[in-house]
Write a structure and sequence with these properties.
260 residues; alpha/beta; six-stranded parallel beta sheet; 9 helices; 10 strands; 17% strand
């Protein structure tokens, strides 16, 4: 939020191919501004442009270069949306469970949304016992994969709108996500509800599994093994709050040096 930071900061999210070009342009034209790199995945050439940024924030990775480490990734939730999903009902003993399955999709390097994966996931969910299950796709979910769910007893939303997605997070008792979507999984954890992550092999790249494993290790989520229950996740701090604190501290330090 640039208004919160007095417009002294540029936030660049992601690790795409355009980043070196953008950082070079930034270096040439906006030397006076604080440069922040928000990483989800660290690109292969990360080390070649890491010095272009004042603050580097993201999940634990093989690189030790970032100064701010987050559990999960920075999401696009604004204050209204954050209040909406964190204020949703948290049932203690719902029966049957209202379960929300949030699907990501094929990643840049891995195409894991196959007919075999669909069949395996459908059977696992069918074996979970009494539950009201809604399967929600995203813009990344392959159409053929969503089509394969139409003949099931589950409620299916092929591509959810933003409001449908937020409302579903708010009303679910239990949320299941797939390992390939770090942002969806992080946003699910921000609800404070039980979150299970589908960790099947061949769904994503190694950094996705690393982020999910850290969330599971912290107690914010569990690995989905076909069993569903209501449990209390460990406290989970919004990654954006961590980044904003670090950026604000850096701005104050920079201002103090200039005034001194």
């Amino acid at each position: 939020d640039s208004t919160t930071l007095d417009k002294q900061c540029i936030l660049i999210a992601g690790s795409g191919d355009d980043l070196p070009r953008l950082s070079a342009a930034l270096r040439g034209s906006r030397m006076g501004m604080l440069r922040v790199y928000l990483a989800s995945l660290y690109s292969d050439n990360f080390e070649s442009f890491r010095d272009d940024f004042d603050v580097i924030a993201g999940p634990r990775a093989h690189h030790s270069a970032h100064q701010v480490e987050t559990l999960g990734v920075v999401t696009s939730l604004d204050k209204r949306e954050m209040k909406m999903i964190s204020g949703g009902k948290k049932s203690v003993h719902p029966y049957p469970y209202n379960v929300l399955l949030l699907l990501g999709g094929d990643t840049l390097k891995v195409s894991g949304y196959t007919a075999t994966f669909a069949a395996r996931l459908k059977q696992t969910l069918a074996d979970c016992g009494p539950a009201i299950i809604t399967v929600m796709g995203s813009v990344r979910t392959p159409g053929h994969f969503m089509d394969s769910w139409k003949d099931t007893r589950f409620g299916v939303i092929p591509v959810a709108t933003r409001e449908e997605y937020l409302r579903a997070l708010c009303t679910a008792d239990i949320i299941i996500t797939t390992v390939d979507s770090m942002m969806i999984t992080t946003e699910a954890c921000l609800t404070g509800k039980p979150v299970y992550i589908v960790m099947d092999g061949g769904l994503a790249e190694s950094p996705h599994y690393a982020v999910a494993s850290d969330l599971i290790g912290s107690g914010a989520a569990r690995k989905f093994d076909g069993r569903l229950e209501i449990w209390t996740p460990a406290a989970f701090i919004n990654p954006m709050d961590i980044v904003l604190q670090a950026v604000t501290s850096r701005i104050r330090l920079t201002s103090a040096r200039r005034s001194g």
